[in-house]
Amino acid sequence: MTPRTLRSTLTLIAFTGVLAVGACAPSSDTDTSGSGGGDGKETTLTVWSWRVEDEAAYNKIFDAYEAKHEGVTVEFKPFKATEYNKILATGLAGSDGPDVPQVRSYGQVEPTIASKSLVPLDGKVDLSGWDENVVNSAKSKADGKLYSVPLARQTVQMFYNKSLFKKHGIDEAPTTWADFTAAGDKLLAGDVTPIAVGAKDDWTLPIVHEVLAAPRFGGAAFQKEVLSGQTSFTDPDFVASIDVFTQLAKYFPKNVTGVAVTDAQTLFSAEKAAMFPGGSFDMAVLKKANPGIDLGVFEVPAPTGSPEDKATTPGWADGNFAVNAKSPQREAALELVKWMSTKEFGQMVADEVKQISAVPGVTYNDPLLRQMADSYEKSPSPYLLLTDFRYGSPSGTDLMGKGVQQLLLGSKTAAQVAADIDAGVKTWFKPTP
């Protein structure tokens, strides 16, 4: 048993009882100055996260940090994702929170910032040269200050089974909309579900919308216009982008609104469906379910009538790290978070966590991860309803998810769904001319 494994085991034993009340003991150290490293004092920093599946990877990453920071121990404590927000809020409100919490991004981190739980990082962490869309995920809309360091960039694209494509006479990924629909027709004729969509889970439908139709509403160009008030979600191009679901519905599983995302993933992994529209975060899940699958990814070509006939890769930042304002070791916690903005950390995220790092200049050994990262670099597009329309309620993603369900059930048209999104976000969103 390695020292870290032993520490993790002892920590888990001590921590089990506290989990029941939704919080855990903070760092208990002989050093409260936060200095650590080379002065004979010991500092233990706790890092909380909702990524249980990444525990081994983070332990390896923090081993590397400890090796260069004498006297510092980093304890990674993951929680169940569905319970994390409540556990974190409880911990940050009291004295039992982590030194370094993993926090949400964009609109979802605003309540945490508003509670004064996080240390502003302006002048302490340098993110110059980073993707603006990524940096915005870590800033507050209220005061414009930086409150966290982005961990990863998530991208959305179409996963496909290369072997199934070839089996049905499709030699390569489609590069035009006509090629894309022709591939769907060939797969249907071969008794294969062309596109595995799980519309029972409404949260995934805005992602599917971005994969299938970001070019149809204009991507980044539309983002600028809608944020400035030059257009709205009732714009004909945005309505047409929602109508893409209607055009492609025949390629989805039967009774698609009763199909869960996990069912769609299983359908694809079992090689009964040829394509799966999803995020870069889905890659590990798909590979684990079927290690032998001949997996590929591509950008869905721009639908007919798109403002620009160019495919895009939508993306956003996800899973930022911050400093707890109540940490008794703020300086040591800040040093760790600063390190998380370095290329060394970013490279380990790519290699160990298998995510597209938020840090610029990272290289990718996994060919699919490299392809997704390269595609985003060449033709980026924001996951609009997440990056800009989750700062109030109802959120853009909630409205789109429920609206597309109604569209697929036949109870609403694309124009009605778009009108509902527009009316819903206007209850809290104010354009900035």
TrEMBL record:
Cellular component annotations (GO), alphabetically ordered: cell envelope
Subcellular location: Cell envelope
Source organism, top-level taxon: Bacteria
InterPro entries: Bact_solute-bd_prot1, SBP
Keyword Signal listed: yes
Matching Gene3D superfamilies: Periplasmic binding protein-like II
Signal peptide extent: 1-23
Keyword set, alphabetical order: Signal, Transport
Main subcellular location of this protein, as a coarse class: other
Similarity section: Belongs to the bacterial solute-binding protein 1 family.
Protein name: Sugar ABC transporter sugar-binding protein
Naturally occurring in which organism (per UniProt): Knoellia aerolata DSM 18566
